[in-house]
């Protein structure tokens, strides 16, 4: 099983930002936990603050990956372009959010990108990524 893990803008700042919403873990901690929980899986990790770089990764995913875990960060609420790329991509896609968006500001409750995914997870901190990988495994009949 090959899973692409995409993280959008400002997620490189995990461990330093709004700990009440994002806890204290880092993207490195996410990588370690995913590899430990799913030792037989291949994960490729990519983070970018640039929309076009994320789109390029999504567009190339069908030919290599069984699934995508995507945390688009702030692009979740604004990016029609990422939504369009996800729509074209036919691999299993799970959008995840670290914080519980239903308890956040109103603008965070509109998710443009989630509708182009098979489903989304919100509020389980680092475990959101673990749940995403588990669901991709289940949906891919691996």
Q: Explain this structure to me?
A:
The protein is an alpha/beta fold and 142 residues long. The chain is 34% helix and 19% strand. It is built from 5 helices and 5 strands, in the order βααβαβαββα. The protein has helices spanning 19-22, 27-37, 51-61, 80-88, 127-139, and strands at residues 2-7, 42-47, 67-71, 92-97, 119-122. A 5-stranded parallel sheet has the order 2-1-3-4-5, with helices on both faces. Helix 4 (80-88) links the parallel strand 3 (67-71) and strand 4. Helix 3 (51-61) packs parallel to helix 4 (80-88). The protein is globular, with a radius of gyration of 14 Å. It starts with a strand and ends with a helix.
Supply the key terms:
single chain, 142 residues, alpha/beta, 5 helices, 34% helix, 19% strand, globular
Blueprint (SSEs and pairs):
Elements: E1 2-7, H1 19-22, H2 27-37, E2 42-47, H3 51-61, E3 67-71, H4 80-88, E4 92-97, E5 119-122, H5 127-139
Parallel strand pairs: 1-2, 1-3, 3-4, 4-5
Summarize the structure.
The protein is an alpha/beta fold. The protein has helices at residues 19-22, 27-37, 51-61, 80-88, 127-139; strands spanning 2-7, 42-47, 67-71, 92-97, 119-122.
């Amino acid at each position: 099983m090959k899973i692409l893990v995409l993280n959008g803008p400002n997620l490189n700042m995990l461990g330093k930002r709004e700990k009440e919403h994002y806890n204290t873990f880092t993207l490195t901690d996410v990588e370690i936990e995913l590899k430990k929980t799913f030792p037989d899986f291949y994960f490729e990790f990519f983070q970018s603050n640039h929309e076009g770089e994320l789109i390029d990764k999504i567009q190339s995913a069908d030919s290599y990956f069984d699934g995508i875990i995507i945390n688009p960060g702030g692009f979740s609420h604004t990016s029609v372009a990422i939504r369009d790329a996800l729509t074209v991509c036919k691999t299993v896609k799970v959008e995840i959010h670290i914080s519980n968006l239903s308890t956040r500001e109103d603008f965070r409750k509109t998710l443009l990108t989630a509708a182009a995914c098979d489903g989304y997870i919100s509020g389980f901190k680092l475990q959101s990524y673990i749940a995403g990988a588990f669901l991709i495994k289940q949906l891919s009949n691996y």
